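Hi R.,

As promised on Friday, here is the backbone we talked about, encoded as structure tokens. Could you run it through your design pipeline when you get a chance and send me back a sequence?
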């Protein structure tokens, strides 16, 4: 008798997973309210510089969201943007570094963590991640620092913060800025301190898959009033507060969030804390269930994390021990009703853009002779953890699955165990 769904057995699971995004009549009412108000765009230059305390009677959805979100993440200022990529680019430009300066970026991340440097005439230098967490490895950071390094781009991958103790010490000792790409870390914390409050600034995303979403959107948070003012100017095409409207002082963008998006986010915020807490409970429970299964090792949850977002739940799959390619394992899980996938196909530096240096006008960095001999292919030798994670090891589960129940987690564990136990039939 067949024992696997791929071979005709009944799958472990047939019922649907929790939907994402979560919404109800409150979201509909918020959108209708903005629609009928006729105020679809916030004409309020400088509102991002208000302290993070919602104004009583505030009618701008964007202003209210900026203040509430920034306060939740331990920051005085929040400047909402069209997307997280925009807030990263804006934050880097506000630092006013020199052409050819370097930013250390984890090799296992989304492209915007690096292109925000390139878009500002800076050089992304890739650093391997730690095998237990897939967050940037402090030991590898130490090795990568040069006299041109200006910052460490921290990506709190999957909702677990990078090692803020070790990285904070390195940054202080080396005189480097910490920049937080917190796109996965809404509502998360390290030793009780909110994600987004550790660096010069932090960037969050509200893209469709994120744990807080309006389909698109982003925000930059900071406690530095000077940075906040610079970013507000960049957001509004380079205008300056107190100067005439048609007067532009720096090269900026129109990266503003709309009132419709902010209205949704203001409602979604009321659910965030409960959702984060629920995902964390389910993530811990699944880790306990997966721990005994041969060839499968969940990433290590650093206990200094006081709130883990589980934007992505990841476990490590050992192809060598199990003798079955990860792709076949994932295919068999899908047949059992578990929509797992292998994450990134290759580390960021293996993308053609980096290998061929296909940047603006082919220059690298733009308009400069610096780093012309930098070979991004060579980072493969420096980043064995990222190479292994992409090639054969990492298995990802979506955050929406962790809005389910312990029975849902049992289904995941049962399916993983079934595939592992019957792997010989899959070879």
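Update: got your reply. Pasting your designed sequence below so it's all in one thread:
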């Amino acid at each position: 008798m067949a024992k696997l769904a791929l071979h005709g057995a009944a799958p472990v699971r047939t019922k649907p997973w929790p939907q994402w995004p979560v919404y109800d009549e409150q979201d509909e009412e918020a959108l209708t309210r903005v629609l009928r108000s006729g105020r679809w765009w916030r004409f309020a230059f400088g509102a991002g510089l208000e302290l993070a305390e919602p104004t009583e009677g505030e009618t701008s959805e964007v202003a209210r969201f900026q203040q509430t979100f920034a306060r939740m993440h331990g920051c005085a200022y929040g400047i909402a943007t069209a997307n997280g990529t925009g807030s990263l680019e804006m934050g880097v430009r506000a630092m006013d570094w020199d052409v050819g300066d370097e930013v250390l970026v984890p090799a296992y991340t989304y492209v915007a963590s690096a292109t925000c440097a390139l878009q500002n005439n800076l050089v992304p230098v890739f650093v391997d991640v730690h095998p237990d967490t897939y967050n940037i490895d402090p030991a590898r950071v130490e090795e990568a620092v040069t006299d041109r390094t200006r910052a460490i781009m921290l990506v709190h991958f999957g909702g677990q913060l990078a090692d803020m103790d070790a990285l904070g010490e390195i940054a202080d000792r080396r005189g480097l800025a910490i920049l937080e790409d917190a796109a996965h870390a809404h509502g998360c914390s390290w030793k009780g301190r909110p994600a987004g409050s550790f660096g010069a600034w932090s960037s969050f995303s509200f893209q469709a898959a994120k744990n807080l979403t309006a389909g698109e959107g982003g925000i930059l948070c900071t406690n530095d009033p000077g940075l906040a003012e610079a970013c507000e100017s960049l957001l509004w095409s380079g205008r300056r507060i107190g100067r005439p409207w048609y007067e532009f002082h720096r090269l900026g963008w129109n990266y503003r969030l709309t009132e419709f998006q902010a209205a949704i986010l203001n409602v979604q915020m009321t659910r965030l804390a409960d959702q984060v807490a629920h995902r964390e409970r389910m993530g811990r429970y699944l880790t306990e269930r997966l721990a005994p299964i041969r060839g499968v090792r969940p990433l290590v949850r650093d206990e200094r994390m006081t709130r883990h977002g589980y934007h992505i739940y990841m476990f490590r799959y050992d192809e060598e021990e199990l003798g079955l390619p990860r792709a076949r394992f994932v295919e068999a899980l899908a047949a059992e009703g578990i929509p797992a996938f292998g994450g990134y196909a290759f580390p960021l530096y293996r993308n053609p853009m980096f290998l061929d240096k296909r940047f603006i006008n082919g220059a690298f960095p733009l308009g400069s002779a610096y780093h012309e001999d930098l070979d991004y292919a060579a980072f493969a030798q420096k980043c064995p953890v990222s190479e292994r994670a992409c090639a054969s090891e990492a298995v990802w589960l979506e955050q929406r699955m962790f809005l389910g129940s312990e029975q849902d987690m049992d289904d995941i564990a049962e399916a993983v165990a079934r595939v592992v136990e019957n792997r010989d039939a899959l070879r």
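One thing I noticed while checking it: The chain has a mean pLDDT of 94.

Thanks again,
M.
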